[in-house]
Amino acid sequence: MPPRNRPTARQVRLGTELRRLRDAAGMTAREVAELLGSTSAQMSQMEAGIAGVSEARVRRLAAHYGCVDPGLVEGLVGMAKDRTRGWWEEYRGALPPAFLDLAELEHHATFLHVTATAHVPGILQTEDYARAVFAYPAPELPAGELEPRIAHCLGRRVAVERPGAVPYEAVLHESVLRTRVADRHVARAQLSRILRQSERPNITVRVIPFDVDGFAGANAAALYLGGPVPPLDTAKRDEPHGGPFLDTDPQLALFRALFQKVKSASLDPSRSRDFIHRLAKEL
Prior knowledge:
13 helices; single chain
């Protein structure tokens, strides 16, 4: 397979996981290359995601590494076989690669968990809300960069709206719902959209009111994307302008615990909808 100019986050992740398996097996790249009839340079490219890897090679490597987790092996095989060119590809060259990587990860996720303390999560945003968020930084983005960001944000909705969409659970602090990133009309429309989305069978919205005692999670905004097995999950700080993807075992454990802690401070879905209804009536 020819080298890639810019591997996607999923392609890099596949290489990273293969390297982790090799490290756990106590084998060097040179040793594995000799077993495969390859070279150390080719191994480095594969583990960096620059070079592709076949299903057969993934299975062969897993066997050499003594991996006894069939779910993990099948998950890695699925990543190796994937040739999806999704809707996000139309933005290649128009947006930073991290935007495309996020959409691809959401497309393949088995569930999505998000906690928000500043902005409404991108998947739940209206067009006007997204426009206000992306237009805010100084200096302002030119229209040629602003409009693709807004369109991409709206395109991300397909991850939770398509047939058979995966579970999506959002925990929103009251500050997210009350902050007017634009005007009263935009705020009202945004609350209405959140309410409509919360009626979907796969979408759960929870609210943390201001008056909840003991909530010190103002910096807890995060997105957690489920993989085919827990070791292949991905987490990231939920920021409108990007942020690194995190996938080590300690990082994933931290974000799983963080989500559960934030969720425990929230109202149940029914009371959360009532809460949002009351806020909308105040506008």
